[in-house]
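Standup notes
- HV: blocked on the assembly model, inputs below
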Amino acid sequence: MAQKDFIKFKSTADSLKNAYLRYNFSDIQGNAFNGVYADVKGRMYEPWIDISGRTNSYNADELIENPVGIIESVIRDMVFAEYNLEVSAVFIALNNSYFEFNGSTHALLSTKDDYYNNAYLINVTRNWSRKVTDYDGTNKRLYVPTATTGTVGDKCYIINTQNDMINTISFDSAMSNRSTWKFAFSLDQQIEAYSLLQQIAFESRVAIHKNYNQYRVTPISTGTTVGTLSQPLIERNGNLMMEVSLTDIDEIFTEYVINYNFLFHENKYAKTLYCNKDEASSTVSSALKTRCKNAEVNYRLQRKLEINLDFIYDDTTALEFLTRMIINHTQQGLIVGYVGDIKNHIKYEKGDLVKINVPSRIPASKNNVSQFMIVKQDLPFKRGGEVILKLVEILE
Amino acid sequence: MRTMAMTPLDDNKVIYIFKLQLDSGDIYLSTKDITLNNFCDGKVLEFTQYNETFQDGEIDYNGGISILGTMNLIIAGGVSNSNFNSWFNEFYPNTSIYLINRYVSVGIVWEGATLNSQITWLHELKIIDYNYADNYIELSLDTNNEFINVNIPYFKIQDVYDDNISYKTKFYTDENNQVIPAVYGNFYSPFNNLAYPWLIPLFAKTILFDKVLLEFVYAYHPCYSDQSSNYLFKYIAGAKNFLIMKADETLKKNSYKGASIQLNPITRSFGEVIEGDLYINNIINSDSSNISDISNLLNTDDDDYILIPVGQQLAVKVDGAISTSETGMLSPMSASTFKLLFQAQSDTNSNSSLNTLYRTDRGDDTASSHTISLIKSTFTDNFGTSNTNKPNASLPWTVEEICNIEYILQNTGTQAIRIYLVSIVLSDIHIQQKFSNINVTVKR
């Protein structure tokens, strides 16, 4: 009832002396309906998860919870997308329909043939999604393989446009590595895609990087090594072109607190895991307490690390994250600068796991034993050639 | 590890290839003249004078996105290559050949290569700037990041263009530009869990898309639908719990037009009501209680309990203020108006007995009796039909009144009783009701 409405009582009965009106509306102007939530399950995998050659264990129309799956969906379904499209011409046939987006407004961007091949055209008006099999850049015409409905004026958008920029081998391997991890988030504020992906990668302890023209996801974890480095170049004075240092002492912590399970309605984290040399949450193993104790003794410091995790709600996942943080940050690892010849080293690339067998530089307990990740590969374009690698020991 | 297109030879035979992908066509440059499918001009780069390095973007070994790789490419001037012999006049602004945001691919071959297919491509960079001096053009390149300057999710409520997702013709000022969410993962918590304080509900955010239809949108995209919920949840701070609002099954939407739940049908019949339930679990010890510490009723461990000894009683009241404007009107004088829900178990192998009642400042309601066995059981007492000692007894209960009375659990048996849970349950709250007439309660 609006504020201007009024209630008029009319009665001829003398006995009617007192009238009570006990009635309250919820304010439909909006105040009563702030902070409303829904119990739902989120986005599903699109058919790109099942394309030929992929080795993951997920299928289209399944719920996306794996953090690497979320990274891939954010990239394919939200970043590599064009919105506000409007059909300007259409041809419907049994096996080969096409839709043109070539109007003066609401048109596709690219005029390059085949640019949108293997993208997914979503017709919002008709509520369908179809894979694009061919693209005619001159007419801005998308071909879809199956019979479907549609007409001029239909509202559309297109996703998975730069699909050849995803290295599916890398993503599938990382999904498998993080198969027990579950993330969740509800994004109701715009955020730069870079910031969102940065945070997801941090909380899932993976690295997102570009090799040549494809994005890869590499878990920060030990795994299968692809080779052994044993031949650094030698300077004219006979020194090996190889330097070894330790990870920063400022990255060593002796006490850990992670806050997770963020409650939107209370604006706070509902759960906490903690670990120090004396106490830990009940699910945290005593071995992690020992690591905290050793860090305090070995490095003669006490330092606390507290992290808020915005995408982790699952207890198992939170414990995985804490465990890896403690393993990595209660001891220093090796950082290696290594210069090798092109002939034997150009085959390696960023993200590869290798061993290093140079006993004059690597401590005996780690030489040809520890796994190192190539985190950087500089290439000087000069005669003679060399490859400059930076490697970090992987402890978890 | 890379798959090499050509078996690496000795380093003195290395040739780097640079493919500039311009609108006018691809230009191949190299560190040494070589003819593959195209002639790759080595003189233009003059590598005897300049010593360029591709500086790779480093992987963050704590997890994250690696920073951009960079390099500069210096092209000598005054050479015979027709792509560069007019120097800076070859490019914009003198011509329509733009350099900015065009790609440069970096590859490697060895002497003896004859085909483009023998190039192993190493990096793809974008020209972000260029400058020139007397004898060179210098291109500044980086590996480009498609994630920068892209804001997501895309759709916001607007009245400019009907995209079938975010368009509205009329809305209140605070709705304009509100983002329609994207949601990942599992936010499904069965609403019955709200009765138990040890179960932390997890819900996805919604935005109010239509204030008349009360349509709440939780995603701009289709969502996984393996659950039958047609409920919405509004947080009531005073209850520290959610008002459960029931929508009609047919008013859910989950399609490419978005995913939403709507409380009002487009046409509502006279008397039709939006109803809701509320479990009030935040309680405090009240004056009539013999139990000094009830913290075990409030924590998140479902095995914790408090003990009511023989002949003693637990008395609690709501710890917080809840208003009718937040929740709506309670259903008048029905059993479901408000209930006392509790879980109890005898502390020994023998049964005990328990009375429950409410107490106002005017006196007590009539007690309800229960047999408490050694099996942990859930009990529900309906207080809503009673108005014994109620203030304003002729009028329906209000949520304010319910928050101001005590709830008593009296051990009338011979064994101590464990109490695991006490909750005040408000059912069938009238959140909104359509009227064409107004009913008036008249008191003489």
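- HV (later): unblocked. The first helix of chain B runs from residue 324 to 327. Helices of chain B lie at 324-327, 399-402.
- Next: hand off to the docking folks.
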